[in-house]
Amino acid sequence: xxxxxxxxxxxxxxxxxxxxxxxxxxxxxxxxxxxxxxxxxxxxxxxxxxxxxxxxxxxxxxxxxxxxxxxxxxxxxxxxxxxxxxxxxxxxxxxxxxxxxxxxxxxxxxxxxxxxxxxxxxxxxxxxxxxxxxxxxxxxxxxxxxxxxxxxxxxxxxxxxxxxxxxxxxxxxxxxxxxxxxxxxxxxxxxxxxxxxxxxxxxxxxxxxxxxxxxxxxxxxxxxxxxxxxxxxxxxxxxxxxxxxxxxxxxxxxxxxxxxxxxxxxxxxxxxxxxxxxxxxxxxxxxxxxxxxxxxxxxxxxxxxxxxxxxxxxxxxxxxxxxxxxxxxxxxxxxxxxxxxxxxxxxxxxxxxxxxxxxxxxxxxxxxxxxxxxxxxxxxxxxxxxxxxxxxxxxxxxxxxxxxxxxxxxxxxxxxxxxxxxxxxxxxxxxxxxxxxxxxxxxxxxxxxxxxxxxxxxxxxxxxxxxxxxxxxxxxxxxxxxxxxxxx
Length: 488
Known about the structure:
Elements: E1 4-5, E2 33-40, E3 49-56, E4 69-73, E5 75-77, E6 81-84, E7 87-94, E8 102-110, E9 113-121, E10 124-125, E11 133-134, E12 144-150, E13 156-163, H1 167-172, E14 212-214, E15 217-218, E16 238-244, E17 250-259, E18 268-272, E19 280-287, E20 298-305, E21 310-318, E22 321-324, E23 330-331, E24 342-347, E25 350-354, E26 363-366, E27 368-369, E28 376-377, E29 381-382, E30 392-398, E31 403-408, E32 412-417, E33 433-437, E34 448-458, E35 464-474, E36 477-486
């Protein structure tokens, strides 16, 4: 059993009786940091979670013989044992029925140190994977985090769709359980309530933050785009990037946006065309431009510098005309330009995407002739892994493992063996294998209701991680979050 670092390495200098009678000088046995590692126990679901608190001194050495207190929100913590010097372990039993999915928040405390980690408890986890977790750091908030992708080297994470509002309830309306307002109505409570932050340190430079008038009121006009009446809901949305920290968490957020005052239907589905180098990356994404021919969302490419605010262009409204300037984006000339292209990926020489919109949900591929973005494309075809009675979308190509990852009906993340053959041929794919998934239908607050958006990273220390998005039904709103799970 390998233990994965899930959380916060919290440095904290403690005043303690030191050597030579100096009470302000810490000794070698003074706790200075605590880190939580989670592991999934095999057996019937819900899988018990082994939690190990590793306590070290300021010089990085383990501190034995301490009394560590564990608590578990959403589960029951058992007896604590010191399994090795400075490593204190407890088994947490999730308070979930068989087939249910939810979160268990584990906290550990010793002296004045504390740490917190969140286990994402799923009823279906492949034997190759450890304990799914909520990504630590500044990535996740009480707002909506969706459409996330990690860079191939694990150093950068982009959350393509962030909003302080509940986008799920706002857009779907009262047809979704637990929601009360009319779909996309500017009068809907869910389209006006803010749950997540919209300022530093979590979300600096948030576009549209000035339209948030109070915790329960958002201005749904955007004069910059010529929208001067509240005809439909437009809660602020933007993409954010994050940098991996030495403890494995993600922080240092920076905005990625087109200047249009947080217009809701902003670029989404960012994917890397390779590992970033010196903080520079080439990315693909989907966007439905407000100017030009209305062909629905299409795919675009841009070269960006990560780590600081990224501008993808600007809109303004002058003399009753909408002007896009500057707009340094390159559209991929797919054939044909269908009404809906979204969630692109690139691998084995093909551009992959889906139609996660009002039309059929399948995976499509097109082969570029020449280097992106200036390539011409073969005619788009449906990938043979798509089945008529199944909703497949959000593809991700893991060339290193010769696998295609994808989401099915927001209920599971599956893989299919694929080594580069003609994707239009069924023989090019293996049978789908569920990597993580849901089982029972959600029935109330606390339940995980959806999974999707797979991406894979291999870090410099040899770890392999599967990142994903999951939605939890909270009291009064839905919370989109980013999770991950490490390969054993």
